Amino acid sequence: MALRRLKNVDAGDRAIRLRALTLGLVAGAGIGGWGGGLLFGLLGSVVGFFAVSLGVYLGSLWIVGWADAVAQTVYNPSGATTPYKEQYSYAASLAVRGRYGEAAAAYELYVIENPAEPQPYIELARLHRDKLKQYDDALTWFRRARTDATLGPGQELYVIQEIIDLYTLHLRTPRKAIPELTLVCQRFPATPAARAAERQLKEMREMLARERDGIEPFTAQFLKQLDGSSARDAAREVLKDLSGENPASPPASPG
Q1: N or C: which end of the chain has fewer CB within 10 A?
Q2: CA within 13 Å, CB half, 103
Q3: Which residues contact 177 (CB under 8 A, 6 or more apart)?
Q4: Nearest of 228, 111, 96, 235 to residue 171 by alpha carbon
Q5: What would you report as the CA-atom Rg of the chain, rounded to the nearest whole angstrom?
């Protein structure tokens, strides 16, 4: 994937240089050659052709570079490395066409290029969870989004909730979700998400007590009354209240 990406970049650069050279040759022939020949004869025509061609070629490349710098200022005024969001459309288009392995490779390349940007981590985790059904890999990428990317409060809450859902709904290891539920209560106190997490933790503590009494294993109890909607719905509500930020387009998940 990286080789293909670099090949596409090189092709685009060659096309720009070819257009600049063509423009230079046309201008050299039409202006330098004709004007130089008119004023100084054959030698002037030859010198004029090469001088104007080279000048137009270099000038065209300078203009392209200047325009690119202006575009970067418009789309990325902070000077950070976060790419314009539409750059992720290539990976998304691969996923839409069912080329999930290639899409995953494209998102991984985005992660390498922009390690602080949360979007590719989140999209990659969703891809592994919803399309490839690789729940351990999905968990890895959600956890990496939390540890490696720069998350706002809404994005952090979303990622924690997705980790909880993976533990409870997909991996069926609810015991591992307890620290994550505790983290929601600590990081987002007095929010709907925290209140839902507190309710779930209370139920889990009761299950753990029954397990200690030898009544029934904790996981078996949890799976019997599994209901992952309450905490998720509460998390969605609190996202609306946290600074009005866009949590990397969550919480909608692809079907």
Answers
A1: C
A2: 22
A3: 163, 164, 167, 168
A4: 228
A5: 29
Instruction: Look at residue 204 and tell me whether its pLDDT is greater than 50.
Output: yes
Q: Is the pLDDT of residue 142 over 50?
A: yes
Quick one: pLDDT at residue 250?
Answer: 54
**Residue 168: its pLDDT value, please?**
92
Alpha helices in the chain (DSSP H): 2-27, 34-75, 89-96, 100-113, 118-126, 135-148, 153-165, 178-187, 192-212, 218-224, 229-239
- Report which DSSP code applies to 174: G
Q: Which residues contact 202 (CB under 8 A, 6 or more apart)?
A: none
The reply to whether the predicted model has a pTM over 0.85 is: no
Is residue 158 within 8 Å of 248, Cβ to Cβ?
yes
Q: What three-state secondary structure class fits 241?
A: coil
